[in-house]
Amino acid sequence: MEILLALSISVMTAAGVFLTLRARTFPVVLGLTLLAYAVNLFLFSMGRLQIGLPSVIDPQQGGYTDPLPQALVLTAIVIAFGMTAFLIVLALKARAELGNDHVDGLHLAADEIDESAEKPKTRHSSNRKKFTKRDKRR
Amino acid sequence: MTHTPFLPLILPLIAGILILLAKPGGIKLQRTLAITATAILVAASLYVMQSALQNPPQIYALGNWKAPFGIVLVLDQLSAFMVLITSLLAAAALWFAIRQNTDTEGAHFHVLFQIQLFGINGAFLTGDLFNLFVFFEVLLLASYGLLLHGGGRLKTRAGLHYVAINLIGSTLFLFAVGALYGILGTLNMADLAQKIALLPASEQGVVATAGLMLFVVFGVKAAMFPLYLWLPQAYANTSAPVAALFAIMTKVGIYAILRVHGLLFGDAAGDLAGLHIDWLLWLGLLSMTFAAFGVIAAKNLRQQVAYLVLASVATLLVAIGINTEQALSAALFYLIHSTFIAGGLFLLADYIRQGRGHAEDAFVRAHSMPSAILIGSVFIFAALAISGMPPLSGFLGKFLILQSALDHPAFWWILGVVLTSSLLIIIALARSGSLLFYNILPQEENHAPDNAQQTSSGKINMQGCGSIIGLLSVGAILVLFAQPIYNVTDSIAQQLNQPQMYLQNVLQFTPVENAHKELVE
User: Fold this and answer.
1) Which of B7, B127, B336, B405 is most buried, taking the most CB atoms under 10 A from its CB?
2) What integer is the mean pLDDT of A57-66?
3) What tens digit of pLDDT does each residue of B385-420 get?
4) Considering CB atoms only, which of B153, B167, B299 is closest to A122?
């Protein structure tokens, strides 16, 4: 059981790290979720692995499992759940506002290209404008 | 057991809920509630600070459970000090937000603001590592809301980075907490400190790993090199009062390093003592170098101020890395200065942005802004303060830090980097000041068509300038009352360097007699 658990934690962590480094928002969200799963399992295992023992001390039973990691995992799950929901909404908002789902949102949205063409702002934005125009031509 | 340590925690929480319920009453009612709550919080923080200075660390056991089993809040001088700074900064930011109508750009500004204070104060007061994680999440979630408040493309993009990096940070935090619990079987900081001191050599590796993982997490919060890349965009693109409030957020990371690493890996920790100190010093010096480069390379004023925040954080990291009581005291002195002045600069940058019309606060030629002389003078004052020029507080803070580094083996490195980066910052600020205030387009009636957008120089809404004056006057106050304030920071540093009192008070705390508890048993 130890090997199985260690393997699942490590595979999930590796996959999570890999996905978090991707360039689009959805894989990043997935990666963070996987990392959260991995850390939950990890926390759980830190109370040592026991089978079939209650977490509330019971004189009838031979022992008990550590209840604290379970409480920690519960808190961590709730927090990770809320954060993931928030991140998904934010990613959707970014997709809508930036016009693409790149983490860095390099391209300008369709309506901003016209706006920035009229308005010579900083050198930076004019460079970006050229970039998107070239993209359009393609 | 008095309820003093609980005050800075419960007040913003209740206020946040009340303001949420007051939504139907309209923005005026919400504003009144928010101002009242923040004023009460300032008063409470003053009281808490006074109480902390007179008493040894005070313990507040939530649920009346004994220390390693239940969660405790600990009020010592450092916590009270941080709470006081937070509430003063928050009052100024809130006043500015209300006068400038920033709070009407989206819903629930005041709720988020109070919950943000709840999270920050909680992080400062808790004595439990997992509880610290929870309060980090509270303050982060509120900060996501505040950062994105009002919406906009740039805010969204910066916000996405900010949220993602902090989620990664939270995951790492949990890994570290889990590893510590797995080895030591406790999460109470005082108990952890005691158990680390008695740890057999075979298990030190895991604890050291966990400790350095925590260091990375707090480094993300404090924006330490190389984990600072999220900060400039996030701070530069959010609204001014939020950016001003966020001047304390990086200090939460600093505080966490001081508290957790100072307690867990302090002098009593045996082989693991000072695990983080070398990292702190050298990463601090690197952060300072890169922050100074950032200040020079910044394309607009708000970004520049964000990099100045980075530079001040780096100075604090270096000062803590010197690791003497004197340096710690100097760091705390510098912390007051850097928090308030950076907050004031963010607010001032908003005036400048408003005044320059379409050029906003970018470093380009534009038409002169209204009341340029007044704003320019204030800018010079703030620039002198933050770059560390005499006679203002930045100079005094940096001087104290360098003075405490005299006996350090890496003194010449510290001196060189601090002075060089200060020089770079002075040059950059002089350049941005002259670009913003002197490099102006002539006032023409018939201008070229491609300049059409730039000519309409904006109007400055001077409401809420009390906040700026209040925040920036700290630069002078710190110098005028340097001795009494330095005495306070000295006493805080002294208490931090003698954690025995803290450990004793936490671990020997006896719960209050409670008749009901007997009944249940």
Assistant:
1) B127
2) 81
3) 998 888 888 888 899 999 998 888 888 999 999 999
4) B299
Give me the phi and psi of A51, to 5 degrees please.
-120, 130
Q: How confident is the model at residue A37 (pLDDT cuts 50, 70, 90)?
A: very high
**Domain encompassing residue B104:** 1-268
- Cross-chain residue pair A39–B171, CB shorter than 8 Å: yes
> Whole-model pTM?
0.89
If one counts every other C-beta atom within 10 angstroms of the C-beta of residue B198, the result is 8
* B115 in the same domain as B248: yes
Q: Considering the domain boundaries, does residue B497 fall inside one? A: no
Q: Which residues on A lie below 8 Å from B169 (Cβ)?
A: none
Residue B1 at interface with chain A, using a CB cutoff of 8 Å = no
End-to-end CA distance of chain A: 54
Same domain, yes or no: A119 and A55: no
- Rounded CA separation B158/B140 (Å): 14
Contact status of B159 with chain A (Cβ, < 8 Å): yes
pLDDT of residue B515: 53
In this structure, what token pair is assigned to residue B227?
Answer: 């984990």
Rounded to whole angstroms, the maximal C-alpha distance in chain A is 80
Taking only residues 68 to 127 of chain A, the set having a beta carbon closer than 8 angstroms to any beta carbon of chain B reads: 68-69, 72, 75-76, 79-80, 82-83, 86-87, 90-91, 93-94, 97-98, 103-105, 109, 112, 118-122, 124
Structural domain containing residue A138: 106-138
Q: Using a CB-CB distance cutoff of 8 angstroms, which residues of chain A are in contact with residue B137?
A: 79, 83
Distance in angstroms (rounded) separating the CA atoms of residues B453 and B166: 38
